[in-house]
Each structure stands twice: as structure tokens, then as C-alpha cells.
Amino acid sequence: MELKYPSVEHMEPGHLGCAGCGAALAMRLALKAMDEKTRVVIPASCWSIIAGRHPDAALKLPLVHTPFAVAPSVATGIRAALDRLGQRDVTVMVWAGDGSSYDIGFGALSAAAERSEDLIYVCYDNEAYMNTGVQRSSATPPGAWTTTTPNLKREAKKDILTALVDHGISYAATASPSYPQDMISKFGRAKETLGFRFILVLSPCPTGWRMEEGKTVEVGRMAVESGVFPLLEVVDGRWSVTHEPSWSPVEEYLEIQGRFAGMGEGEKAFFKEWLRERWELIRARVKQGLPS
Predict the structure, then answer these.
(1) Model confidence over 241-267: pLDDT tens digits?
(2) What CATH number has the domain spanning 22-288?
(3) What are the sequence ranges of the domains in the chain?
């Protein structure tokens, strides 16, 4: 069957992302579910650069740049102003990296989620502070090399999705640009949902992941099919898996990226145990079929 996607484009050619940038592809696909009544808020991140400068920015939509920690707060203010003007049909979307979402801006993110602000918050997750030189974040997976973990990261990746779902938010999902129909569908559902919505998007970074520039989509698929990045949806606390992995060997996913080249058997065992525990939690929550 021929795959069909919305023809709408809210992103111009000529963005300033690196070759093979997963975050640029993710934005293009996400915006296919949006309309011109969308306002985008971007904290300090790779996308601060990728967007380019006014009046030649890559996005056709109104865009506000913010410091690292305050994007949810700025978006809350924009939402309040639009509501005061009676423009409740305008969507406010935060587009933030993992450094802002998992770490520096997590306090503001948690506060906006707890208040159930009427926002879509997107974390495009490239698993490190890529814009400032590939430093470790709490989204960096165990066993990965970064410039601040030259002997490899020892800790598991923070489970930000579960943390935000447990705030009682309206909608949460994970998405991958390697599965465009699933991704566009989730952004469309988020757009039609009221309250606080959170979408975690895996965004492979050839530079930081030390992989070939033309492998972005392939590596994204490998992450999903090996179970490293589950495709999930949580509606009013009810969990579902939107794509069941084929369970391809996780070693293939690790070996295609130079950032995992230093892993020994101990690190690989820890990585696999981390995945096993993560999937146990997912299966348990899906089986419950009840709000978290």
C-alpha cells in the first residue's frame, strides 16, 4: 500500500542543521500535523541554531526563542495571552532538547504539567547536549561516550515519560521520525487534546552518536525494533504500545554507533538489564489498563 502523508509544509528548505540531523526531520514531520495557527517556543538547544535567523528562519510559523530553563513558563504566558484575546484555537508548542527537558528546565516543565497548562511540550531527544559539544545529559543512555563521560556513562537514562505521566497529564507519547505515520498521527491527536500534552521524540544525531550521516532513519528504526526506544501512547493515564518491536539484536544498534565503541561485556549486560526493567514497567502499566 502506498504511504501518504500530509502535503502541508511549515518548514522552509535551507535550515542550519548538520547533515543527517534527526531533529530537523522530526520538526518537519511534527509540523505536518499542525496548522498555521501554531506558535512555537524553543529554548536554548540545537534548534536555536537550526531555525536560522529572522527573517530567513526555516519555520514559517511564529517562533519565540528562550533561555534554557524557562520555555514552559514563556509558553504558559503566550497561552494565557491568546486566551485573553479569545484565540483559543491557536496551538502553543514547546520544542526543546533533552538538556532543557530532562535537566535544566525540568522544574518549569514539571510545574506546567502539574498545572495542566494547555500546551504541547515536545522533547526532541538526541541524548546529550549536542549544541555545546556533546556533553552528558540525564537522557544519555548507559555505556555511551560523551565529552564529559570519556570513560562511558554509568547511570541509566532518566525515565522522563513515566515521570510526566505520573503528573496526571492529558496525553503523552513517544515518537520516531523513522515511523512517520505513527509520529504524525500522535501529533495530530495531541493537537486535538486539551490540557498538558508531552511527546518524546528520538532524534538521532550523527555528530554526537558517531555514525554515518546517511544512517539516521535506519538507526532510528533499529532503536525501535530492538526495544531501545519503545513507541508508546498514554491517554488519560492508560498505556498502550503503538508498535510492537521485532526484537532485533540490541548489539546491532550499539555497534553502528561509535559512541558505544568502548562498551565491554559488563556495560552491555547493564544496558540489557536496563532495557529489561524498562519493558517490565511498560508491560505492567499496559496490563493494568487503568490510570497511573
Answers:
(1) 999 999 999 999 999 999 999 999 999
(2) 3.40.50.970
(3) 22-288
